[in-house]
Write a structure and sequence with these properties.
This protein has six helices and ten strands; from the N terminus they run E-E-E-H-E-H-H-E-H-E-E-E-E-H-E-H. It is α/β, with parallel strands linked by helices. Helix 4 links the parallel strand 5 and strand 6. It is globular. The model has no long low-confidence stretch (mean pLDDT 90).
Length: 220
């Protein structure tokens, strides 16, 4: 199992990236986008990256904020450009298809991205505020720290034209299965899976998380 450390350049910024890959013939990629309170390295992210690479994927992670304060200085447009650059990186590395795993706040980044070049979304406990009216797309250049939550209007999800799978724990106090069902109802194709005994940290029932992730992204 190879883990390559990558200098991941996005515009004038360079971040640490890590590529997990087992086979030189791997031509399917996965980008992992973390939540606001935890970076993409360590815990369940390491486990899933290792298992997906073993299943024949190229898995790319990048660390573009090291603290909540740094995240609050970013804009949604910047976060979208980082995701686009990660997809482009995997494409340039030989991937013919790319899916995204996005956790918590990262789910809002993935859902509001235009989706170009992405074949599927796997959202882990997406922490977004879903409203009836267009919301977040009205101010994509506003600082993340200028709003209390990442609000997404149901009309903002009209552009989502790829399969969306959501995993959520039944002990998550911030994101409920009902919240997740509202998201899948608003997109063209979606499914919600509730994981018993899991909370928002996604480290209590790792076996179930890995199994469902592999089932969705690797057909296992």
């Amino acid at each position: 199992m190879a883990i390559e450390i990558v200098d991941f350049a996005v515009g004038d910024e360079t971040y640490e990236g890590r590529l997990n890959v087992q086979s030189e013939d791997a031509d399917e990629g996965v980008v992992i986008v973390p939540g606001a309170g935890h970076g993409p390295f360590g815990n369940i992210f390491d486990v899933v990256a290792y298992e997906l690479a073993g299943a024949g994927k190229q898995v790319f992670r990048y660390d573009s904020w090291e603290s909540h304060d740094e995240l609050e200085e970013k804009t949604l447009s910047e976060l979208h450009r980082e995701l686009e650059a990660a997809v482009d990186y995997l494409r340039s590395n030989g991937c013919s298809s790319v899916a995204v795993i996005a956790k918590s706040f990262g789910g809002g980044i993935a859902l509001t991205h235009d989706g170009d070049g992405i074949e599927g979304l796997l959202l882990w406990a997406p922490a977004v505020e879903l409203t009836d009216d267009p919301a977040v797309v009205d101010e994509p250049d506003a600082r993340i720290g200028d709003s209390d939550e990442l609000a997404i209007g149901i009309p903002d999800l009209d552009h989502v034209d790829v399969p969306v799978r959501i995993l959520v724990g039944d002990e998550d106090r911030g994101v409920s299965p009902e919240d997740c069902r509202r998201i899948v109802d608003a997109v063209g194709e979606g499914e919600v899976t509730t994981i018993p005994g899991e909370n928002h940290g996604f480290n209590a029932n790792r076996t179930a998380i890995v199994d469902h992730t592999l089932e969705y992204l690797a057909g296992e």
